[in-house]
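sorry for the late reply, my laptop died twice this morning and i had to redo everyting from scratch. anyway the thing you sent over, i finally got around to it. pasting the sequence first so we're on the same page, its 562 residues, then the predicted structure underneath. double check i copied it right bc i was rushing
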Amino acid sequence: MEKLIECVPNISEGRDAAKIKQIADVVETVEGVRLLNVDPGKATNRTVITFVGNPEAVIEAAFRLIKKASELIDMSKHTGEHPRMGATDVCPLIPISNITMEETVEFAHKLGKRVGKELGIPGYFYENAATEEKRRNLANCRAGQYEGLPKKLNDPEWKPDFGPAEFVKAKTTGATAISARDFLVAYNVNLNTTSTRRANAIAFDIREAGRVKREGNPLTGKIVNDENGEPVRIPGTLKSVKGIGWYIEEYGIAQLSLNLTNIKITPIHVAFEEASKKAQERGIRVTGSELVGLVPLHAMLDAGKYFLKKQERSTGISEEEIIKIAVKSLGLDDLTPFKPEERIIEYMLRDSSQKRLIDMSLEEFANETASESPAPGGGSISAALGALGVSLGTMVANLSSHKRGWDERWEEYSDWADKGQEYKKELLRLVDEDTNAFNKIMDAYGLPKNSDKEKVARKQAIQDATKYAIEIPFKVMETAYGSLEVIKAMAEIGNPNSVSDAGVGALCARSAVMGAYLNVKINTKDLEDRVFAEGILKNGAEIQAKTQQLENEILAIVEGKL
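ok and here's the structure:
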């Protein structure tokens, strides 16, 4: 799966719409990046821009944005309520999927060094990208703001991490802070009260910073200080959470306004549950919640699975159903409709201009297959058969988890259903990937062949595409064969009333393996790498034989229970 990172640069311009547009527009000049949001603030004279994509593309877009901002924003003339020190004040990178924080830090350093070298803009690495502990905190890096830069850049203690330690270019561009940090979720919890004071009390109960300790009355008593004269704090119950209470006139309710700064430490559902608990202790009820901005898919899936497990229900259901459970359990549609396709990052990144085969109705898919086009063909159909087969096995697992009298075994069947969903997800991906593999071959044959160099390149492209068109149906074989473990288990220990469904699932999986093997064999005919071809044919024959044997075993179990 593709690696994804998010970039959220804050530029020091929130009033000039034309400038903001010019700066934001450069993001979309980079292929592989999607501009998600542009949020200007007039009072702060600051705009938050959000985009997502593969790491190399994102840091290229970030570089272009920083360059354009330095050309259009003159920091010597900037005023605004928000602390700032540069035209692009901060530029955090956030790992979204299939990438570690350590890798993201490397991309942050790569971006910063290029900004310093090519643009001559000084700056600092903060949070996870920091080069020393005191620079982890953005407030330390930005202390003195733009006006303090002439002195700061000459201070050896604050020599910039990148760019020149001088105020020449920085007079107009200021300095930039670049980081790698965890995803921050802005999350509001709705309360059945209009009292800001009571909402604040709940926020103080749960936020990491807690509240200031007082003698006697916790509201009016004298503040307790430590030996250094600093106020003693009573910490809240949740780590990596910031929060206050406020009243929203638009809705006529008070809310907890929370920033979840690390959803690995405190996920959304944990914050919701703790807020509900603390509210109830104060005689207040949580009526729902709302997410501000975007959220990663895994956060919603984690929440849905948490509530399913709490209900002792199987988590091996479709992604859409899990998200629906999360939305209802968190009350995300309490104030306004929650539309996953507009709020989940991964869903927003889907290319709606290219309709996938698996997005078609069954009738559309059948019509597309039956048309004059050679794709989708046997490989895609084999993958689809495999997906249907393991879906039947997964259905039996889910039905078993609900069977009356088997309540204590719900988790066992949930685990099997989870496995089935993983096989199903991979086989559905392969439905489209098999057609993509065929298209790669067609594209390779369409390459120019005028010169000897072009002929060599075209021939190599055809061979590479052919090898890929062999690997994909072979992957279908492996996955469909693997899915038989779920189907067999459900034939043996699943709901006996659904044993015939397990049998049909085995027939589908067998057909998927054998059909995909036909595709492997026909494509190896045109491959010049005979060592690869013979090796994959041998492995394919072994998988086919094991599949047929396992199918026979499953059907024998099924027949014995009918």
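The mean pLDDT is 92.
thats about all i looked at so far, will dig more tmrw
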